[in-house]
Amino acid sequence: MEDMSKLQDELDALNAKITKHGAEVRQMKKDGAAAEKIGEAVKALQALKLEAGTLSEKLQGDEPQFNRKAFDDLIIRKMFVVPSFEIHGGVKGLFDLGPPACGLKAAMIDLWRKHFVLTENMLEMECTCLTPEVVLKTSGHVDRFTDLMVKDPANGECFRADKLLEDAIDDLIENNPTMSADEKEDHLRTQRQADAFSPEELDKLLIKYGCKGPSGEAYSPSFPFNLMFKTSIGPEGTAVGFLRPETAQGLFVNFRRLLDANAGKMPFAAAQIGNGFRNEIAPRSGLLRVREFCMGEIEHFVDPNDKSHANFPTVADKVLVLFGRDDQLGSGKTKEISIGEAVKSGLVNNETLGYFMARTQLYMEKIGMNPECLRFRQHLATEMAHYAADCWDLEIKSSYGWVECVGHADRACYDLEVHSKATNTPMVATVKFDKPQEMEVAKLKFDRKALGMVFKKDARTVSGALETLAESWKDFEPIANALEADGKTTVDGFEITKDMVSWEKTTKKVHEAKFTPSVVEPSFGMGRILYSLLEHSFYQRDMDDQRNVMKFNPQVAPQKCAVLPISSNPECNAAVDEIAADLMQSDLATRVDKSTAALGRRYARSDEVGVPFAVTVDFDTLTDGTVTIRERDSMVQVRVPKKDVCNVIFDIVHQRTTWEQVTKKYPVVQVDEGDGKPSEKGADAGAKTVVEANARGRFSRPAPKK
Questions:
Q1: By CB neighbour count within 10 A (0-12 exposed, 13-18 middle, 19+ buried), where does 409 fall?
Q2: What's the pLDDT tens digit per position in 144-160?
Q3: What is the rounded CA–CA span in Å between residue 414 and residue 411?
């Protein structure tokens, strides 16, 4: 055990070095460092990764391995997830959710709405998936989502150009084992820079390395490929649009109306859940990287000078596993710390960001995610957008490793500012003061003639921009200093000279102040969360491939209860229908299985789709009106009056009671479904029992009253 602990410490330290070297390599590429230096750094990074891989294999040697074959078989066989358009050959990156996954996703979303939207009094919207180009141009998506592509002229098939170059170099080196070290290094240096070449440079290199399409013809010249799905709006085809790559932009552009809907009060949050689209070049890892995905996004608008949260004390003691940037670059180890302490120490930037991190953790635990497989990783400085104040990703550990599933970003004022600037629309909120306050402002005097001669019809726009800045001396001071020092400066793209405006620093009493809100954004990848929950819920009884179970939490289980008759006679079936109708009338999704299969086999069918409870109607039901309720994971059964079934299941699903409390209230009957031997463990000691047998096993039940 001690040796394994030492190995883990070594692996953590190596991972920290890998993170640090990776950040240095990214920075070198940004700074345009020499190719030789980048090559040396990448080589060192690859050596560290190889060493870490060897250590990881040693650590995993004694751990039980996730049975992916059995898991994948269950997912397909029970139709949780299936490839889209399968009979036509399917399309990579597109999947259909079958009945069990639809129910699971609907329950997850319902709980998400209750946990966030209803509890926080958020303003929910449903915005269109079709977005005009100008909106995404403003947000930066049009420029950001571009890769260089080439086509096979014969069939029009597209390929990512830099990946073709990388593959061609790999093939060249593999097919020439006697290649000299210097020549090999020269090729590898080219490969490392594949994503940094211009279209013209890539075209020359593809020709140099003999890259040809499947048809045997040379590829077309490189061209930019945008990862967003492009379309045209209207029959003319002149208005360009895209399927949205995220849901957030619809909330940002509606900020003013949302603020009005909230009676002008700040802070407030808006939320939206819906589909996003990304034309992935190489979809992989099942539901983790797809072309159409469900997202749940929250935009919490807050005063940039006051990012406290009224409800933060309710979560301050919640302990989270945090992987800060210093730990990633240093010890390589996570730390368990309360979110209150993390905010107080400055590890997490502010209360609002910390509050949503804690609430996300609580949501994950509520839907049944394994807390030991959850952590929050802070973005490194090289990963952060220039405008962001702090970013933390909730990562979930699965068989694919640690996967980012929820992003928590303090995006500052960036989003509202860019849309405001592009549309000349004020995206501001107002804070009212209890008492009037003295504020330093700039009093401006314009030379209207000079402005008009230079800017003509834009003169009013320029003066308006300066007047907006003049409302706060803090904002106007850099303009004033530039005009004094250089005689000119630039405001919103217009060059202002000192002769156009004069100013005087003064003070005035104000009763309110306007500001552009900051945005704290939790963004949930529902598809990734769904997949992770499927993995976390899967297990096999006694490592038996024939006994697969999905241990869904009752709150999110697609079906809450199965109702089974022990016999196919009309009286039993009538009782089954009556119980099922009562359950469904209480909005409890119910599975009825009247097949002639053995009872144990029908239990197993329910277990495979995660049904947490099974009600069995037997011959005693017809005489004394009682049934058994079986709990999926323990396989323990209790005998309950038929009239109590609906209330028992309803109360457990809605967390008004627990299964443990139910076993104390009603007599317990336990069945060994493996070898068929009766067991009295946990049974009511005072109950007289009889043993009934069938093809599946022997059942110990309370004897009917005489």
A1: buried
A2: 777 788 888 888 888 88
A3: 6
